[in-house]
Amino acid sequence: MNYQTLDDLLNLTGKYIHKEESINLITKAYDFAKTHHEGQFRKSGEPYIIHPLNVACILAEINAGPATICAGLLHDVVEDTDVTLEEIKAEFGVEIAEIVDGVTKVGQLKFNDALDKQLTNNQHMLIAMAKDIRVIIVKLADRLHNIRTLGALKSEKQSRIAKETLDIYAPLAHKLGMFRIKAELEDTALKYVDKENYNKILSQVKNDSSARMINVDHTINEIRDILDKENIKDYQIKGRIKNIYSIYKKMINQNKDFKDIYDILAIRIIVNTISECYQVLGLIHANYTPVPKRFKDYIAVPKPNMYQSLHTTVISSDEFTFEVQIRTYEMDSVAELGVAAHWAYKENVEYSKEKEQFEIASKLKWYGELLQFSEEEKDEGAKEYVDAVKGDILSSNVYVYTPTGEVIDLPKGATPIDFAYKIHTNVGNKMVGAIVNNHIVPLNYELQNGDLISIKINKNSFGPSENWLKIAKTTHAKHKIKNFLNKQNKDILINQGKSMVEEEFKLNKVVCDLTDEFAKANFTKNNVNTVEDLYFEVAKSNLSPKTVLAKYTGQKTTSTIDDIISKQIEKNQKILTANNEIGVVVEGLTSPQIKLGSCCNPIPGDEIIGYVTKGNGIVVHHKNCKNLKTFQEERFISLYWAANIDKKYPVSIKIDAESNMNLLVDIMNVISVAGMSILAISANSNQSLETIVKLKVMTHNLAELEKMIVNLKKIKYIYNIERDNL
User: Are the C-beta atoms of residues 620 and 639 closer than 8 Å to each other?
Assistant: First the structure.
């Protein structure tokens, strides 16, 4: 429908908006928009005001509130006229101005090309939507009218806008449960993206539906008789034709012929209560033959876009296969209008934008995820952000369950890694395995609709490996994995750089006392602001330890009290180290009887604690050793590692991996390259095709071990590594 006058809009709003101040506000917004768009015309030749008027009318059709309708009328004035956002605020208030600002295209930015502009527009639209759901409601109405009038544009622009509609706007409408708008966006856009197939399917639907409709009408009459006999009151039965784009997707994605699609025509039965839904389902199954595995209960477990209905496919007595959808009147309204049905404007009801946003986020889990995602990824580039939202949120169509029964939606091809990171970043980082439908599965298992999944975590896990980046499907999971690996690798490099600098200072008999101020003052041009930055650049060979020393000695030529104290401490530690072969210092003791705990194998760099045994001296344990829980607290003593330890220590690690004949060879190659020696190695496989490798190696310290573990994680079969008995 193409609306032409203000009266058209007021007739629509008059059905549910009666307050004089609201009507006056809408009229004022129309007059304001008409005045400022005066002299502007659309490509069709119509006055420009026709577009915002139709946007507002589409919003009125779904019972949007006065503020939303005003934003629809004003959504282009800031971009296309000399009106500023401040003027909108002054004339119509902050609330309407913020919606307009969220919807307004980003025309003032500089772009490299049309694609950059398109992606940045979409990024700003999605971020604005995360702040106020009404932004996307207005944007969908805007896009719906634009797609209706696409014929006036050049073919190249038609194709671009139609593809963008299928990529961004139709999925958003689907996520919001707005089926009526979604279907029109999809079908109209398909006409410009693939006209040949659109016309072909349209012709088949017309021919097929006319033939099938005879069967549908006959079946509807049969069902009426069944429901009347069972005294079901106040019901509706109607036929539904599947939209063309949905048929197109099934034919393309599932490689189906038109004749193999059962639900082109469906019968919808609408009743008053949920109990009547299940009663009607029983009657349908009692009178028609159900098709196995074609029943879905979206009432007990609603879709993430709030859609609820019972779906079943049955065969009639004349062998006609058809789908039956059974739902309540409220469910039917939500199915057609989605989020708009829940939050349709009602006069005399207390209104709060913040309360509405909270309710929507709690009802629409994906919208809550968008809020979080937009906050976490706000500094990402436009392409990365839009691709992530499209891939992780808008394309989600695999529904799996947590052990508590919560529905999690993920894109097709998602793995347990994606599931874990969607639950929480720490769950992903500490994940060591997954159980799906009570069976252990490999991490590259593709999740299927209805899977019940739980994640095995270990707080002492070393975290994800680079191989996980090849397994993860969602941009969100990959981003979190990269962040972890970058931080982990950076920490290792910082420790390496620190050791290199300290060694250079030691060789030149200079006390190393670097500060952030020194680093920033001397190495800003190297992007150094802290001592850690300095060590990081040294480890990457962007700076040499000699350069750091030269800057330091050029700045400090005389010894201070601090230098003297530092040298004395260093000297004392050398004495203590010399008197203790283990390399552990106990304050007040120069030659204590000490040995390392064989249960946890602590190494320099670990946090340690001493336990005074009866007759066997002091045993050194890792602070996370499992055996500490059984010890007497009064026997614990503090101790620490001596400086400049030059010896190797045994350490035990456990590796979980997929079974592979090259696994042990690859592990030994990595250890050999790291310059470590293997004391013991064993491997056992279980029925789930997992291999558990127990390994004992000799290492100088924790930093060296962690570097080796990082390289082990590059082996594609390995998905978890952890220290044994911690």
Answer: yes
β-sheet with 677-685: strand ranges across? 677-685, 690-699, 649-658, 718-723
Residue among 38, 61, 76, 80 flagged as catalytic: 80
Give the residues across from 680 on adjacent strands: 696
- Token couple for 258: 């038109």
Summarised one tens digit per residue, pLDDT across range 361-383 is 555 555 555 555 554 554 455 55
Cα 568-573-575 angle, rounded to 5 deg:
100
For residue range 547-580, list pLDDT tens digits in order: 899 888 875 544 444 454 455 555 555 444 444 5
User: Out of 8, 31, 46, 79, which one is annotated catalytic?
Assistant: 79
User: φ, ψ for residue 280 (rounded to 5)?
Assistant: -65, -40
Rounded Cα distance between 344 and 65, Å, is 7
Enter the tokens of residue 491.
């920490």
Residue 418 host element (H or E) = helix 416-423
Q: Which of these ranges, 98-112, 585-599, 605-619, has the smallest mean pLDDT?
A: 98-112
Active site residue 8: no
> For residues 145, 309, 389 and 70, what is the CA-based torsion angle, rounded to 10 degrees?
40
Burial of 309 from C-beta contacts in 10 A (0-12 / 13-18 / 19+): buried
Q: How many CB atoms are closer than 10 A to CB 101?
A: 20
Q: How far is CA 701 from the centre of its chain?
A: 37
Q: How many other CB atoms are found less than 10 A from the CB of residue 84? A: 12
How far apart CA 710 and CA 80 sit, in angstroms, is 54
- Name the token pair of 427: 């769950």
Burial class (CB in 10 A: 0-12, 13-18, 19+), 142: buried
Is the separation of the CB atoms in 598 and 724 below 8 Å? no
Residue 489 has φ and ψ, to the nearest 5°, of -65, -35
pLDDT band per the 50, 70, 90 thresholds, residue 109 = very low
Spatial separation of the C-alpha atoms in residues 390 and 377, rounded to whole Å: 14
C-alpha distance from residue 650 to each of 101, 603, 679, 703 (Å): 63, 8, 8, 14
CA distance 222 to 514: 88
Q: Buried b / exposed e across 695-705, counting CB within 10 Å, b at 16+? A: bbbbbbbbbbb
Give the Cα separation of 683 and 680 in Å (integer): 11
Angle between helix axes 66-74 and 6-13 (nearest 10 degrees) is 160
Among 265, 301, 512, 271, residue whose Cα is nearest residue 405 = 301
Residue of 219, 310, 316, 201 lying closest to 264 (CA atoms) = 201
Q: Is 328 helix (H, G, I), strand (E, B) or coil?
A: strand
Alpha-carbon gap, residue 577 to 589, rounded angstroms: 12
Dihedral over Cα of 330, 331, 336, 340: its sign: positive
Q: Across the chain, how many H-helices and E-strands are there?
A: 30, 21
DSSP secondary structure of 261-304: -GGGEEEEEEESSHHHHHHHHHHHHHHSEEPTT--EETTTS--T
pLDDT at res. 384: 55
Q: How far apart are CA 209 and CA 216, in angstroms?
A: 9
The per-residue pLDDT for 373 is 52
Is the predicted pLDDT of residue 343 greater than 90, yes or no? no
Q: Write the DSSP string, 131-167.
A: H-HHHHHHHHHHHHHHHHTGGGS-HHHHHHHHHHIII
Q: Bigger pLDDT: 547 or 354?
A: 547
Decide if 80 is catalytic: yes
H-type helices in 464-515, by residue range? 468-471, 475-507
